[in-house]
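Notebook entry, structure prediction.
Reason for the run: the old model in the group folder had no record of what sequence produced it. Starting over properly, with the input documented here first.
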Amino acid sequence: MTAVEAAVAAAFRDEWGNVLATLIRMTGNWDLSEECVQDAFAAALARWPTHGVPDRPGAWLTTTARNRALDRLRRSKTEAAKLQELGALSVPGEPATPDDSGVGDDRLRLIFTCCHPALSLEARVALTLRTLAGLTTAEIARAFLVPEATMAKRLTRAKHKIRDARIPYRVPPAHLLPERTSGVLAVLYLLFNEGYSASAGDDILRLDLTAEAIRLARLLVALMPDEPEATSLLALMLLHDARRAGRLDDDGELVTLEDQDRSRWNSAGITEGLALLGQARRRSRGGPYQLQAAIAGCHAQARLAGDTDWAEIARHYDELYRLMPTPVVALNRAVAVAMAEGPAAGLALVDELATSGSLSHYFLLPATRADLLRRLGRREDAAASYTEALRLVTTGPERRFLSRRLAEVGG
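New structure, fully documented this time:
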């Protein structure tokens, strides 16, 4: 990869969501904006080798995309009014003007816009991840545990719904924001998760995504300070992010939670996360993000792996499963039960999930089963499950970790 190609790749990671959000605010047209932003990045690849990488790549990309949109709109008589509006807007790169919603950040505004109640919750989340984070359809499909073709159809239907229902690209007034909160929280959580544990590739951490998710979560808490689940989500992100430095060793290899060097954890992040969790609990108890933050808090407060209160974590997962009876929560609950009551108890729960077929494409199901079998001394069965997990895993560090485990049990 050349220096210019690396600069364009970095600009895509850092600027895609901001440029697209700004252009959608300007034009109100999803498809036009996405096409023009893609054209802007193509122009960067063509021009930056000759003219050099600009000092402010985001502003350059926004200006280029805006000019492409102007050209497209000039050729469309039906968009004459929109052209007049676009021409009167401020210089690209300047911050958005807050409306009566109180949202002044383009990316957060767009999240609320995409999370329209007329769309299903899954469509809102998928659409926003595609727009804001620039995630591929394949990455989003893996986040939802569905085939890529299925997710492509859902994204297309969501776009058609916006077009046919003429859903406006605007933020509702502040008193209507709560009806979209669940979708916004889900978007931010999945955005963070994709950065904290990437769904594919050689890098399991994507720090640009975790940093952006935390930034937007902070904005959301400032916007809705009395919403306990927003505060809990920020706490959850900070508590997870505080453990980031311990997740990989110096060679970039994955380290399990029980083997991590806890001195590498960020104590300031843990302190802030726990304080936010306390604030949320004083307002309300028992929301799904609050329960997950409480689980993360149990891990963060254990000075040694052996100090972890797994019984308390299992109780939190029991409550979480009552609120969210999903297969992934059930799998995590099985792990907690295994650590609290022994691997045989956890294995029974994992085998129930395997029989249901609900996680047949999720590599962590056979990986978890393999680990429990390994702890029980059933090496041959563990090897078979590790082999199945390796067939499904999609990231380099996780593949290498599973390969090492397979070798340990004689596979």
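Summary: Residues 46 and 133 are 23 Å apart (CA to CA).
The old model has been moved to the deprecated folder.
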